[in-house]
């Protein structure tokens, strides 16, 4: 059969059956159920605590326990270790739903699931998995420590050293901006075992909070994600046993690149959820608020802006779900992940600004959620790779694509 005939037959089948490939954003029954479960959890358990946690500058311990009890901190961990054994797409859905209510809580679950658990599951040896995964699924919060005072975007210029002493290693140096570190009991830390090898000396170490010589600084005071603890870490001759090296010596840079590529889809989902949460809290107000005798939603000048915002939200969701489904399908996803992260962090800034404008004066009141969403949105263009770094990645891959097609 010719190529054209085959295409015609397929088109006829689609017409007869009345369906084609499902939309990237359409959810299966199980996906819908899970999304509703997380949305219910967020409404009941997170929503009443948002302001209190924001003011206290920390996440409520009872809430952390409930996140664990409901499986939301061990989403992809296999059942045999006490996890939910769900896929990456559902992890992304969960981050989006939580972020609609509180992006600070979302980042707690995001780092735990997409970086700490993922590294332990995929790189850890059997003994490490047996020891850490049941704890990470049930009660142990973890952090991922890469950034330092002098190495942010240029992450592999890190200065923390790990010198081989006897059968183990001794860590010296410090890290900055480490999410969850106020709560974490375990830290996956990148340090260099041999500076002469440059980035090929970077190795991942498992550091327990109570390790001698290890200390955690005070949480940074910041404009975004105030409840999420972001602290510095200090290593002063911290002795690490050889069996606490995660993965292979000198492969830390490779793990970092790989896992941050996936992790940034989590940040994209966080920004998407935040934008949607802000939009959802705003539209009912616009339908209700009257000026010049009619709801402010009814003015065409408003409607065009709302339509534009709604279109961009849909575009953001397509990018995020597509990138997450590519990961789950084990397809190439790096460019799509960077696009999703870049687009959704801009989207969050745009939507939250618009929502505040549409609400008028009350938009900047701390009685309404818009101003918090607006502040929280700012961090999206910075962490897990700034906007420029995402654009660098996208441009590099576009160049590669065209260079290939010229061959
Ligand atoms: C709230 C928060 C939580 C964080 N959590 C963690 C965590 O859990 N673990 C962790 O390891 N890190 C964490 N980070 C660190 C974060 O990943 C870095 O802040 C981020 O990678 C940017 O690094 P930097 O802040 O040093 O900025 P810099 O790298 O100093 O960048 C400054 C500016 O220069 C631009 N720039 C730099 N290089 C280039 C380039 N090559 N091309 C074009 N422009 C460039 C950047 O885009 C940016 O605009 C967190 C940060 C924040 C704010």
TrEMBL record:
Coiled-coil parts of chain: none
Keywords: Acetylation, FAD, Fatty acid metabolism, Flavoprotein, Lipid metabolism, Mitochondrion, Oxidoreductase, Phosphoprotein, Transit peptide
Record EC number: 1.3.8.5
Annotated Acyl-CoA oxidase/dehydrogenase middle domain residues: 143-238
Domain Acyl-CoA dehydrogenase/oxidase C-terminal: 250-396
Domain named Acyl-CoA dehydrogenase/oxidase N-terminal: residues: 29-138
Record keyword Lipid metabolism present: yes
GO cellular component annotations of the record: mitochondrial matrix
First-level EC class: oxidoreductase
Family annotation (InterPro entries): Acyl-CoA_DH_CS (IPR006089), Acyl-CoA_Oxase/DH_mid-dom (IPR006091), Acyl-CoA_Oxase/DH_mid-dom_sf (IPR046373), AcylCo_DH-like_C (IPR036250), AcylCo_DH/oxidase_C (IPR009075), AcylCoA_DH/ox_N (IPR013786), AcylCoA_DH/ox_N_sf (IPR037069), AcylCoA_DH/oxidase_NM_dom_sf (IPR009100)
Cofactor(s) named in the record: FAD
UniProt pathway annotation: Amino-acid degradation; L-isoleucine degradation; Lipid metabolism; mitochondrial fatty acid beta-oxidation
Catalytic activity: (2R)-2-methylbutanoyl-CoA + oxidized [electron-transfer flavoprotein] + H(+) = ethylacryloyl-CoA + reduced [electron-transfer flavoprotein]; (2S)-2-methylbutanoyl-CoA + oxidized [electron-transfer flavoprotein] + H(+) = (2E)-2-methylbut-2-enoyl-CoA + reduced [electron-transfer flavoprotein]; 2-methylpropanoyl-CoA + oxidized [electron-transfer flavoprotein] + H(+) = 2-methylpropenoyl-CoA + reduced [electron-transfer flavoprotein]; valproyl-CoA + oxidized [electron-transfer flavoprotein] + H(+) = (2E)-2-propylpent-2-enoyl-CoA + reduced [electron-transfer flavoprotein]
Domain of life: Eukaryota
GO molecular function: flavin adenine dinucleotide binding; short-chain 2-methyl fatty acyl-CoA dehydrogenase activity
A GO BP entry: carboxylic acid catabolic process
The protein's assembly and partners: Homotetramer.
Family named by the database record: Belongs to the acyl-CoA dehydrogenase family.
Listed PANTHER family: ACYL-COA DEHYDROGENASE (PTHR43884), SHORT_BRANCHED CHAIN SPECIFIC ACYL-COA DEHYDROGENASE, MITOCHONDRIAL (PTHR43884:SF1)
Protein name per Swiss-Prot or TrEMBL: Short/branched chain specific acyl-CoA dehydrogenase, mitochondrial
Source organism of the structure: Apolygus lucorum
């Amino acid at each position: 059969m010719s190529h054209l005939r085959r295409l015609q037959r397929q088109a006829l089948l689609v017409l007869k059956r009345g369906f084609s490939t499902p939309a990237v954003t359409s959810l299966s029954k199980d996906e819908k159920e899970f999304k509703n479960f997380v949305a219910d959890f967020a409404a009941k358990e997170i929503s009443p605590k948002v302001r209190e946690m924001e003011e206290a500058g920390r996440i409520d311990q009872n809430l952390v326990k409930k996140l664990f009890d409901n499986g939301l901190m061990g989403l992809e961990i296999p059942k045999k270790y006490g996890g939910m054994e769900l896929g990456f797409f559902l992890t992304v859905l969960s981050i989006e739903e939580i972020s609609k209510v509180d992006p600070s809580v979302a980042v707690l679950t995001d780092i735990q699931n997409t970086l700490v658990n993922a590294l332990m599951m995929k790189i850890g040896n059997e003994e490490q998995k047996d020891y850490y995964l049941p704890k990470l699924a049930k009660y142990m919060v973890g952090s991922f420590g890469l950034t330092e005072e002098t190495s942010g975007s240029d992450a592999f210029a890190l200065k923390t050293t790990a010198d081989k002493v006897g059968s183990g290693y001794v860590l010296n140096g410090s890290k900055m901006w480490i999410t969850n570190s106020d709560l974490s009991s375990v830290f996956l830390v990148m340090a260099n075992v041999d500076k002469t090898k440059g980035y090929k000396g970077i190795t991942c170490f498992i550091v327990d909070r109570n390790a001698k010589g290890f200390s955690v600084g005070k949480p940074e005071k910041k404009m975004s994600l105030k409840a999420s603890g972001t602290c510095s870490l200090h290593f002063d001759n911290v002795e690490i046993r050889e069996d606490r090296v995660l993965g292979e010596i000198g492969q830390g840079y490779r793990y970092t690149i790989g896992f941050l590529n996936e992790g940034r889809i989590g940040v994209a989902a966080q920004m998407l959820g935040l934008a949607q949460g802000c939009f959802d809290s705003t539209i009912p107000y616009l339908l209700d608020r009257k000026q010049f005798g009619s709801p402010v939603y009814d003015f065409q000048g408003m409607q065009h802006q709302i339509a534009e915002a709604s279109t961009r939200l849909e575009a953001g969701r397509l990018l995020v779900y597509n990138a997450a489904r590519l990961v789950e399908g084990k397809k190439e996803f790096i460019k799509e992940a960077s696009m999703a992260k870049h687009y959704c962090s801009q989207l969050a800034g745009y939507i939250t600004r618009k929502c505040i404008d549409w609400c008028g004066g009350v938009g900047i009141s701390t009685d309404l959620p818009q101003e918090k969403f607006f502040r929280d949105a700012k961090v999206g263009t910075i962490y897990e790779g700034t906007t420029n770094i995402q654009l660098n990645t996208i441009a590099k891959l576009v160049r590669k694509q065209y260079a290939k097609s010229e061959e």
